[in-house]
């Protein structure tokens, strides 16, 4: 247990996926942290059920892609069905642009156990249960975090920064007086997690019913999750009775003893905190935003928070960056998080309406689009989902590139590449820190001339993926799939890649050294 004299660069409040991932990323960046979780034991009930491609890529930074992601159920899209049983929409698996399937169905307790196993491999992150944070006092150069330990004794930790990933009812957010803006759905939903389900398909079913909208989602271990809207006049106590649940599930399966893992009522929210930073304290995950489940983005939004905040904390703690750069965490993440919330709301509008006018509008819209398959495909496949791209933040030349397909401000694709006869994912070559990707001999020469160096307190990897036959002073990697074509938008420019796999800048070879100095100046 940490004692009153304990000092940590970072205290993380909450041992859910966001908190655990933040600790693991910080450890990968060489930053020591401690996670304080108020529960006595780890979570043992399923909550989040989807890990997306960006989330899997975040887990790749510390190797959980190899130890955990392969054990999930890879999703193959979704179908949308009306009351007559007609399938009016079908979404496929989609491309693996970022190196992983777009959806992996998970059991959250198993995922958290896998993350805790990864914590056991590092000495840079400690985890303590039954530790409830009761106060935070900010000073000029640190935060005093006061908590009650498992023995009931009140103690303190001195931290330079705090990441509060303590859930939708975040006590940290409440103590700071940070309001949540947005809305709460009027309709509650029954959520039933089952085992031994006869439906073995690996895609979701959205039953867009005018009687009772409901959803069926794959789950690991031969299970499935069912969600049913609670209708007006139904009580929470009644809808959770065994006979009522058996009636709901009758069209799909019979329930035997032990088949129901969990039954509960969910109230869905679409809300966001008015600010995500308060001095030395950052909010993350559900403490910062609450997302309806229809797009499977709640937990994944928290993983994006962890990916964005952790490397920036590392540049402050290890690289001498100004703490002012932490303002970019809120600036970069807020709009994308709200866009994902709105995406989930739109998807909910497709699934949820029971009002006859709303249903008629949806049906007329689908019918009207029938002669225009490309437009219908755009709607039903939710291709309006925002790409992982920032409109502001720690970038150079954002929106100023001469190339129409510029990746600056955007998450780069992750192709498979071959180096020395070995095929690997691109991020494996980039490592945990920054990276430079050269694409022609001039770029490779400019990168090689820099020599080996760290950047803002983090490693700097150097990768050469020539876009045409070219040789240079750096060992070349060859692309093994078409995903590399997106990198080719920059022709002969050298790409600077941030630790969260976003393209920070693109430089012509002769301006590389000066460009890196200009980028580093953003952090001072």
Average residue pLDDT: 89
Question: Termini, distance in Å?
Answer: 36 Å
Under the CATH scheme, the architecture of the largest domain is 3-Layer(bba) Sandwich
* Radius of gyration over all CA atoms, rounded: 24 Å
CATH third-tier fold name of the largest domain:
FAD/NAD(P)-binding domain
Share in helix: 25-40%
Question: Into how many domains do the coordinates divide?
Answer: 3
Query: Runs with pLDDT <50, length 5+?
Result: none
Oligomerization status of the protein chains: single chain
Query: What is the 3D shape?
Result: globular
User: Which homologous superfamily in CATH is the superfamily of the largest domain?
Assistant: FAD/NAD(P)-binding domain
The total of helices stands at 14
Largest sheet: 8 strands, mixed
* CATH hierarchy class name of the largest domain: Alpha Beta
Approximately what portion of the residues adopt beta-strand conformation?
25-35%
């Amino acid at each position: 247990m940490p004692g009153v004299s304990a000092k940590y660069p970072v205290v993380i409040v909450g041992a859910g996926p966001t908190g655990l991932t933040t600790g693991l990323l910080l450890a990968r960046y060489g930053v020591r942290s401690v996670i304080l979780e108020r529960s006595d034991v780890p979570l043992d009930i399923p909550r989040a059920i989807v890990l997306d491609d960006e989330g899997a890529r975040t887990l790749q930074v510390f190797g959980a892609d190899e130890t955990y992601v392969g054990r999930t159920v890879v999703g193959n899209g979704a179908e949308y069905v009306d009351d007559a049983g007609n399938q009016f929409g079908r979404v496929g698996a989609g491309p693996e642009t970022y190196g992983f399937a777009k959806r992996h169905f998970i059991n959250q307790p198993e995922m958290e156990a896998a993350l805790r196993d990864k914590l056991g491999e590092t000495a840079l992150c400690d985890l303590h249960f039954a530790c409830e944070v009761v106060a935070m006092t900010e000073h000029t150069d640190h935060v005093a975090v006061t908590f009650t330990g498992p023995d009931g004794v009140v103690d303190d930790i001195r931290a330079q920064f705090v990441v509060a990933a303590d859930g939708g009812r975040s006590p940290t957010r409440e103590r700071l007086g940070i309001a949540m803006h947005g809305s709460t759905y009027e309709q509650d939903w029954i959520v039933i997690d089952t085992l031994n389900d006869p439906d073995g398909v690996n895609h979701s079913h959205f039953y867009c019913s005018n009687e009772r909208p409901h959803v069926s989602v794959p789950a690991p271990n031969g299970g499935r999750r069912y969600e049913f809207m609670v209708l007006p006049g139904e009580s929470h106590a009644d809808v959770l009775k065994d006979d009522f649940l058996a009636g709901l599930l009758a069209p799909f399966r019979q329930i035997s003893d032990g088949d129901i893992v969990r039954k509960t009522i969910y109230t869905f929210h679409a809300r966001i905190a008015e600010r995500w930073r308060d001095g030395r304290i950052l909010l993350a995950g559900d403490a910062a935003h609450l997302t309806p489940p229809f797009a499977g983005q709640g937990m994944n939004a928290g993983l994006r928070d962890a990916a964005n905040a952790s490397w920036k904390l590392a540049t402050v703690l290890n690289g001498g960056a100004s703490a002012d750069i932490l303002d970019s965490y809120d600036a970069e993440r807020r709009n994308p998080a709200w866009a994902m919330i709105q995406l989930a709301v739109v998807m909910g509008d497709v699934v949820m309406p029971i009002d006859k006018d709303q249903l008629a509008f949806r049906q007329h819209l689908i019918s009207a689009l029938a002669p225009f398959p490309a437009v219908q495909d755009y709607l039903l496949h939710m291709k309006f989902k925002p790409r992982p791209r920032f409109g502001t933040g720690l970038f150079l030349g954002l929106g100023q590139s001469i190339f129409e397909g510029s990746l600056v401000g955007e998450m780069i694709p992750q192709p498979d590449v071959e180096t020395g006869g070995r095929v690997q994912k691109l991020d494996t070559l980039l490592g945990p820190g920054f990276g430079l990707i050269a694409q022609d001999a001039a770029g490779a020469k400019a990168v090689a001339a820099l020599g080996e160096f760290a950047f803002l307190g983090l490693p700097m990897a150097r990768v050469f993926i020539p876009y045409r036959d070219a040789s240079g002073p750096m060992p070349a990697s060859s692309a093994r799939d078409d995903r590399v074509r997106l990198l080719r938008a920059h022709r002969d420019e050298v790409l600077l890649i941030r630790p969260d796999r976003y393209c920070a800048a693109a430089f012509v070879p002769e301006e590389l050294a000066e460009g890196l100095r200009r980028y580093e100046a953003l952090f001072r």
